[in-house]
């Protein structure tokens, strides 16, 4: 692997990105490179470098020393770039083909050079356009099982696992999640952002002590349960897809946390799609939700049977206890994600992009209602089929 270095951090211009790319020895000498900054996320620059002669491309992702969505008033560690690059590589060891290849890491400039996936579509964008992704749910179910099982105590020697916990300590990025997912949306906080016509529903959330108790329990779990190396922000904007391929990008929020968090975030972002769709199109997403959990649990179970190093692995009931815990945690985390994506700081285009006011508000109310029910009822929802029934009933 090339480790490119330069003395001091500076954020690159497109021109500088081309010069940088030339020095990586990834293109031939006569390459004719072009560059455009295509970052549409909340935090970083993403340069797409392409050789006009061969058509070959690479991606150069650079962290900024602040959160791009807010500006320099919100400083943010550059170390997240190294965490992201290392997490891509670590997850790639277990979920080969489901993450981009990392070509080079530059710690000084907070740059990751990686495989160009621009032949694929960001799943959120494609799902909004009703594109069909027949492999998405099974691939993500497998990605979740492989990455989460193999980085957990069930697969690793405790020394190795604790070494990874410390390598992936990511306090600043975790704090964003602790605030934006688990705290601010449940209080009258300045970061919240919602239409006045949602105020009644939002105030009802703020005043719902039982709901807040569930969120508090989940926040505690996020703060304290170092179960596996999570992606940490597995929404549909962090997944590239086509009819035949799925690739997970952007694990800069990676850290050791509760397994259900990654599962729940992905499920929540599928659920967001169900509130915007009707009829057969909604059915497609309901099947994705079902399949994600089924593939995840089957794959996780199989890994457990064949590879677990835990002394209690064959103790009757232990594997089921773990899977039940992951399921219930996932439903709770999904509830938090649904609520934060509706009324918190970082919204989703699936909902905000609905032009017709009445339809948008109705969809947002449904998202809030589903979030609330998942949080309150998660302990009594015993299967993914029961989740589907709940979603169908709520959306009749
Ligand atoms: N490997 C890649 N290949 C092609 N495009 C990419 C790649 N990585 C990121 N992008 C583009 O850049 C955008 C932002 O990337 P992302 O990693 O989500 O940034 P952020 O961390 O700022 O959210 C993506 O939505 C996608 O359009
Ligand atoms: C101020 S960060 C808000 C939000 O942005 C991150 O998403 P992404 O990097 O994919 O744009 C993450 O979801 C954070 O919660």
UniProtKB/TrEMBL annotation:
Its EC number is 2.7.1.100. InterPro entries: Aminoglycoside_PTrfase, Kinase-like_dom_sf, Methylthioribose_kinase. It catalyses: 5-(methylsulfanyl)-D-ribose + ATP = 5-(methylsulfanyl)-alpha-D-ribose 1-phosphate + ADP + H(+). Gene3D superfamilies: 3.90.1200.10, Phosphorylase Kinase, domain 1. Pathway: Amino-acid biosynthesis; L-methionine biosynthesis via salvage pathway; S-methyl-5-thio-alpha-D-ribose 1-phosphate from S-methyl-5'-thioadenosine (hydrolase route): step 2/2. ATP binds at residues 44, 61, 115-117, 250-252. One of its GO terms (biological process) is L-methionine salvage from methylthioadenosine. Keywords: Amino-acid biosynthesis, ATP-binding, Kinase, Methionine biosynthesis, Nucleotide-binding, Transferase. Substrate binds at residues 233, 340. The keyword Transferase applies. Residues 35-286 form the Aminoglycoside phosphotransferase domain. One of its GO terms (molecular function) is S-methyl-5-thioribose kinase activity. The keyword Transferase applies. Belongs to the methylthioribose kinase family. Homodimer. Catalyzes the phosphorylation of methylthioribose into methylthioribose-1-phosphate. This is Methylthioribose kinase. It comes from Psychrobacillus lasiicapitis. The gene is mtnK.
